[in-house]
Amino acid sequence: MRLSIAAFVLFVALAVTGGLILRDTLLQNAYESNTALSRYYASETDSNLVTYEALLEFGTASIEARVYEDQPWDSIEEWASLYCERLRTVLGNENINLYGVVDGRVLAVGSEALGDAGDPTSRAWHQEAVAHRGEPVFTDVYEDAITGEPVVTVAEACPGVDAVLAFDVYPESFQFRFATPDLPEGVSYFLCDSAGVPLHAETDLPEEDVAPYLADLVSRIDAGEFEGHDANLTDSTGELRAVDYTRLSNGWYSIVTTPYSLILGGLGTVYAVFVAMGAAFLVALVAMAVRDRRRARAMERTNETVRVLGNSYYAIYLVNYDEGTYEMIKGSDYVRERIPPRGPYPDLLRTAGEVIEENTFREFEESFSAENIRELVANRVRDYGGDFLRKFGERYRWVNVRVLYDESLAPEEVVLCFREVDATKQRQLRERHYLEQALDTAQGSLESKQAFFNNMSHDMRTPLNAIIGLTELARRDTSDVEKTADYLRRIEQSSHQLLNLINDILEISRMESGKVSFASERMDLAQTLRDTIAPFEMQAREQGKSLSARLDVPDPWVLGDPMRLSQVMNNLLSNALKYTRPGDSVSVTVTQEDRGDMDSYKIVVADTGIGMSEEYLPHVFELYAREQRFGTAQTVGTGLGMPITKSLVTQMGGSIEVSSTLDEGTTFTVTLPFSPAAPAEEPACAATPAVAAGMPEDGQVAALAGTRVLLAEDNEINMEISTELLSSAGVEVIQAWNGREAVDAFAASEPGSVDAVLLDMKMPVMDGCEAARAIRALARPDARTVPIVAVTANAFAEDVAATTAAGMDAHVSKPIDFTVLCRTLSGLVARRRGGDRA
Question: Distance between CA 404 and CA 318 in Å, rounded?
């Protein structure tokens, strides 16, 4: 009996002990399996965050280089804008804002980058980045002070300079991809930040319960409640669950929870049949079988996880840096053919060096020596490596090598792994090259513009200085009429020089902003060219030069923009006269070439002037370029005339070529296509109406005597000048100081008593176009017929079109040429009195 009792007691003791051991073993196996799973998920998460880290590391490296180079703040801000645009493109999110602190100054790109949220150095992202200088850090999820949205900040402090760079990522923008089989039923997985805010969850819990559940779970993890394999908690449903977790390098948590009912599902049966001695051994055998089966499944899952990780690397070695040995887990074909699966670590390095460039290998051998690996482990560096070129067959490809350290490995052991990254590296190199190219281009453009502004400042001050100086001389010598007249003549010349400079600057500004427009109207090409050439013939005679023109144009009537054509010819002819000496000649030859539906016209402007050097010739059409040598440095100009001409010709569908020989002359050849147009029954109207050809200026002035003109001008000096000039021609002037006064004055006048209206385009209360439309809309017989002339400082095609649409008859440009004004007014008044207007 005693023996039986003893045997029974022994059996019970063994059974109870076995049951407890079995329970502990099941929990231990589940702990190992779930820990491996949480580590795998953590590794996958780290891989998903590599893109953000790589982008940030590139940014901090770039800004550190700029700070070392002591680049100006404007240059750093410009780079930051380009870099932010690259971030948005790569990450596919237009809402990304870039910000940081550089040498104590706030750097922000984006409308809501920092807002008014106080000192950025006091924020968590800045403090964490400084604490981990040289490493990317991820903050916990927090509510953005500007948008109120939950956000994660990625930040990094430059290792060598006082600069921190950061950008925000919204949690929904993270794309977590976990290449693993589905979780067993009832098992939950959570990814959260260090405060327990959920980033990803696979669980049966209701969505509203996840956040408080994780907050409590993380607080208990931080308190050390889940360090053992038997750590557990009771969830909101009352179910007991095992908790296994891995903390990521950025402080986030990868957590796996498993129901005890799943882990210990068979143990209750063992306890139930324990009372039966006959079934005790069977239950024990079944329990062992279940345990072994579960262990096999756990091992299989672990092996699958290792295989998935191994597929990313073509070679993996386990290195014992203390013993100086290696173990080949996975090797390349080249290495397997030359060294055994295990052996001295120097043999592995030597074999690797056979396919690495000599200069690169010296750095590789030093970086991955056993001594350096020991130092890395001592410093708790878990991931170390870089990229290098490795020879595969006959060509080199980029390879990434990493040394990975983790406490789960045996002491003095690390993992050395190699992965081919040629496509990714080539893309990064291309993107970096494009970025450097863009920065170089921007820098070159900035330098060119700076040189242009320096030259422009000098060229504008030269005529301005002449105007001021000659005005002072004229004021002193008022008694000498002849000398005063000479001073006034030279003041007028300097004023025209200054006006030409301003016109060129405005024109190129409009071209760069894409605001140049072209008209398509019927014109007599030959007559337009003659009218353009005529003033230069007089200028050439005054300068002791000759200007000849030969026009062979059988079909002169075409559709085109006469103003733009005149602008091209003005630039070419003024250039020719500018760079020729007394006694030199300038010739203009125009020929027609038939090309079917479109006629082509060739315009050749040749001179025998100073010419251009071979070095400068390729740059003649570049913006802001001017040849600086003896003889040309004193010539007034902006360096914009030829670029403007080139742009106009190109936009008109034509081409321009130049040939030049130093001290022999220059030839410009312009080819322009025009659609043919039917000849006009009457001479075509110019942009500004004129009286009959050949009418002397005195006749034009006399024709205005006795007329009444309504003048609207808001500037007192301009009003005085215009009034005096018109009054000297016998014109009675009615003054109005804005558009509204002009409309009221015209409405109050007797019908037909006002012969013409002059309207300044830019006036307070009502501008010129509004005033013209209001006058035309008045219910009186002369409202539709009275000539209205626009006075504008913007003589561009679209401005002329706006005046025409407002009902104006013509326009004159500021500064007002009195001869042009008299010719325009006399022509309009004569036409009205003759009944030409409908």
Answer: 10
Most distant pair of Cα atoms in the chain: their distance: 153
Residues 6-42: tens digit of each pLDDT: 555 666 677 677 777 777 777 787 777 777 877 887 7
Which of the residue ranges 432-441, 584-593, 715-724 has the most confident prediction, judged by mean pLDDT? 584-593
Going by DSSP bridges, is the β-strand pair 732-736/708-712 parallel, antiparallel, or unpaired?
parallel
CATH assignment at residue 543 = 3.30.565.10
Tell me what pLDDT residue 308 has: 66
Instruction: Render pLDDT for 111-139 as a digit per residue (tens, 0 to 9).
Output: 555 655 568 888 888 888 898 898 898 88
Residues 722, 223: Cα–Cα separation, whole Å = 89
Give 691's pLDDT tier (boundaries 50, 70, 90).
very low
In degrees rounded to 5, what are phi and psi of residue 831? -65, -40
Is the domain of 403 the same as that of 550?
A: no
Dihedral-angle region of residue 284 (phi above 0 means left; psi in -120 to 50 means alpha; beta otherwise): alpha
Distance CA 383, CA 262 (A): 36
Please name which of 619, 683, 664, 613 lies closest in space to residue 646, comparing C-alpha atoms.
Answer: 619
Same domain, 387 and 459: no
Range of the domain at 356: 315-420
Cα 362-367-371 angle, rounded to 5 deg? 115
Could you tell me how far CA 395 lies from the centroid of its own chain? 36
pLDDT at site 326? 93
Domain of residue 98, CATH code: 3.30.450.20
Residue type, 149: E
546 and 651 share a domain? yes
Q: Are residues 410 and 321 in the same domain?
A: yes
What do you get for the CA distance between the two ends of the chain, in Å?
140
| Band of pLDDT at residue 4, cut at 50, 70 and 90 | low
Q: Are 662 and 575 found together in one domain? A: yes
Q: Are both 504 and 522 inside the same structural domain?
A: no
More confident residue, 447 or 712: 712
CA gap 567, 652 in Å, rounded = 12
User: What is the amino acid identity at position 377?
Assistant: V
Per-residue model confidence (pLDDT) at position 248: 85
State the DSSP string of 772-796. HHHHHTSSSTTTTTS-EEEEES---
State residue 111 phi and psi, 5-degree precision.
-65, -25
Please indicate, yes or no, whether residues 436 and 498 belong to a single structural domain of this protein: yes
| Residues in a beta bridge with 780 | none
CATH number of the domain that 786 lies in? 3.40.50.2300
Note whether 755 and 708 are within 8 A (CB).
yes
Report CA dihedral (179, 183, 188, 190) to the nearest 10 degrees.
0
- Asked if pLDDT for residue 838 goes beyond 60, the answer is no
Core vs surface per residue 89-123: b (16+ CB within 10 A) or e: eebeeeebbbbbbbeeeebbbbeebbeeeeebeeb
Structure tokens at 243: 């908790």
More confident residue, 537 or 820: 537
Closest CA to 96 of 14, 204, 169: 169
CATH value at residue 414 = 3.30.450
Above 70 in pLDDT, residue 223?
yes
Packing angle between helix 481-512 and helix 641-651, nearest 10 degrees? Answer: 50
Which tokens is 374 given?
């020991």
Same domain, 785 and 655: no
From 153, 172, 191, the end of a domain falls on 172
